[in-house]
Recover the amino acids of this structure.
């Protein structure tokens, strides 16, 4: 079993996996490093990470979860969060509840300050998950799968737009 305690000074933020790294035309608005905590301490039903967002950037596009609940706690810096169509200022010490729902719960955190914005993100880990991206009309289906033969976690990710999928019987 993994050790169940880790100090924040022992957690290093790293660049996102290549599949989740924004392309150059999007990178001017989105950037973040992630320090994944839950995998280091053996968490099973909750995921935790520290997200580090540079000034002027957002970590992720506006999205809402249909299944999982999230919470963010601002460790350092300031910015804003859009929830639905309303924008709220955020700063060090703020707790932010992000329950599952529809586009009215869609959220996007942006660093509007002059220093790094660091927040602890905590989420339930129910799988599969359906995520909506209301600004771009996309949806995502994400599932956590058992580790592969190499021991690394595996995921199934499908991102699409309604009406662009194939019929269940297509090609049968």
């Amino acid at each position: 079993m993994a050790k169940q305690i880790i100090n924040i000074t022992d957690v290093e933020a790293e660049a996102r996996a290549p599949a989740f790294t924004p392309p150059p035309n999007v990178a001017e608005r989105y950037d973040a490093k992630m320090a994944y905590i839950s995998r280091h301490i053996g968490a099973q039903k909750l995921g935790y990470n520290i997200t580090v967002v540079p000034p002027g950037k957002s970590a992720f596009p506006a999205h809402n979860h249909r299944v999982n609940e999230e919470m963010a706690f601002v460790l350092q810096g300031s910015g804003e969060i859009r929830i639905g169509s309303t924008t709220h200022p955020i700063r060090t010490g703020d707790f932010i509840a992000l329950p599952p729902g529809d586009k009215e719960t869609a959220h996007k955190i942006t660093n509007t300050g002059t220093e790094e914005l660091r927040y602890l993100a905590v989420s339930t880990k129910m799988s599969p998950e359906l995520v909506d991206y209301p600004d771009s009309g996309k949806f995502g289906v994400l599932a956590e799968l058992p580790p592969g033969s190499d021991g690394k976690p595996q995921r199934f990710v499908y991102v699409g737009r309604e009406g662009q999928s194939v019929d269940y019987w297509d090609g049968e």
User: Anything to note?
Assistant: The longest strand covers residues 46-53. The two ends are 45 Å apart (CA to CA). DSSP finds two helices and 13 strands in the chain. The longest helix spans residues 24-27.
